[in-house]
From TrEMBL, chains A, B:
Residues 14-68 form the HTH cro/C1-type domain. The keyword RNA-binding does not apply. InterPro entries: Cro/C1-type_HTH, Lambda_DNA-bd_dom_sf, TransReg_Diox_bact_type. One of its GO terms (cellular component) is cytosol. This is HTH cro/C1-type domain-containing protein. PROSITE patterns: HTH_CROC1 (PS50943). Keywords: DNA-binding, Transcription, Transcription regulation. One of its GO terms (molecular function) is DNA binding.
Length: 73, 73
């Protein structure tokens, strides 16, 4: 695993979560109380999130932060 | 789970890892290529680590970053 993979996995999982609920990036960003462009950066795996930011997001959507860090299929 | 718990869990797990190997904070910091005071802050759960920093540390000690985030008994 290379450094940076974790934020990419988190981004992909958040995107999957959002799409499964049929939400736009904007609606999802609103839901999480963050800016749409910031959320876009997270989904693309470009944001080097802190543990606290990850915790806040995970808490707001009711998932375990470690689950967001786990690659799917 | 409250925001900030994750960094406390990571800190506790790193301290356990270090003590199990009989390393001083200084030796452990050297091993990880970080400063001793920075490492002390991480162990005390005071550092809001980024995912990349967590990945680097986990990689250097050969553990899964998610394992470092998992509370032990």
């Amino acid at each position: 695993m290379a450094v940076g993979d974790l934020q990419k996995t988190v981004g992909r999982n958040l995107r999957t979560y959002r799409l499964q609920r049929g939400l736009s990036q904007e609606a999802f960003a609103d839901l999480l109380g963050v800016h749409r462009t910031y959320m876009g950066g997270i989904e693309r795996g470009e944001r080097n999130l802190t543990l606290k930011s990850l915790e806040r997001i995970a808490e707001q959507i009711g998932v375990d932060p470690r689950e967001l860090m786990t690659p799917r299929d």
